Amino acid sequence: MVGSTCTGNGAARADFILRRARQARDHPDLAPYVTDVAKAVNAAARDGDVLVEGTQGTLLSLAFSSEYPYTTSDNCTAAAAMDDVGLNWQLVSDVVMVVKALPTRAGEGPLPFELCEQEILRRGVAEYGVVTGRPRRKAARLDWSLLEYATMLNGPTKIALTFCDHADPHMRAARSAADVTAPVRALIDRVEDVTGAPVTLLDTGPRLSDMIDLASGDVA
Fold first, then answer.
1. What is the value of pTM for the model shown?
2. Dist CA 195 CA 137 (whole Å)
3. Could you give phi then psi for residue 151, rounded to 5 degrees?
4. How far apart are CA 101 and CA 142, in angstroms?
5. Greater confidence, 4 or 77?
6. 25: closest CA among 37, 10, 40?
7. What percent of the chain has pLDDT over 70?
8. For 66-118, how does the pLDDT look when each residue is reduced to its tens digit (9 = 90+)?
9. Helix H segments across 56-211?
């Protein structure tokens, strides 16, 4: 399998599509944990807030990437995330698109503006895959045409800009809107211009508290 993480996800999806996979409901010992997810999530969304999180990156989508076969085994869009849990689109009020200040990629496939390994280490911006532990390849900057395409596919209402400290080390662990540096402010302006959506969250470090909520002006 191309760039497989060797976790069995692709094989399991193939079995599911071929209608030969066993499901949780087929195991009596799992009965206490089985429910109608679509019914539950729609009921919860009507009465309050529900957060549905997608995985990986939009341009790894099986059906929408020009880089096939260097893709994952499903689509990675806002619509796909809603479909995965059976959420009625009419109950969706916001689509938050996560944008990495310096895009990354694990495994094979193209990566525009890719940095060499030595430059990644020199800058101190190395990343490693959560599942495989493999070093992530890293780009020097965003590809604006690809961001525009991802915006078309997802229709974001808000943007969360992550790894701002990799774009500018002076943003490391910043937690106030007043701490946003000129380079990151320029990046925010360009992202907003390309996506047509406001950047409302900034990630500035590895800790959960390393976050700036620009919508409120307060520490997240």
1. 0.91
2. 24
3. -65, -40
4. 7
5. 77
6. 37
7. 97
8. 999 999 989 999 999 999 999 999 999 999 999 999 999 988 899 999 999 99
9. 78-85, 117-123, 144-154, 164-167, 182-195
Residue among 71, 75, 76 nearest 5 (CA): 71
Token pair in block for residue 190: 């360009």
Q: Using CA atoms, how far apart are residues 195 and 36, in angstroms rounded to an integer?
A: 35
User: What tokens does 207 get?
Assistant: 């800790």
The residue with tokens 């500018």 is 168
Q: Which homologous superfamily is 9-219 in?
A: Adenylosuccinate Synthetase, subunit A, domain 3 (3.90.170.10)
Contact present, 198 and 192 (Cβ < 8 Å)? yes
Domain definitions of the chain by residue range: 9-219
97: left (phi > 0), else alpha (psi -120 to 50), else beta?
beta
In angstroms, the CA 137 to CA 3 distance is 13
Integer Cα distance of 58 and 71 in angstroms: 10
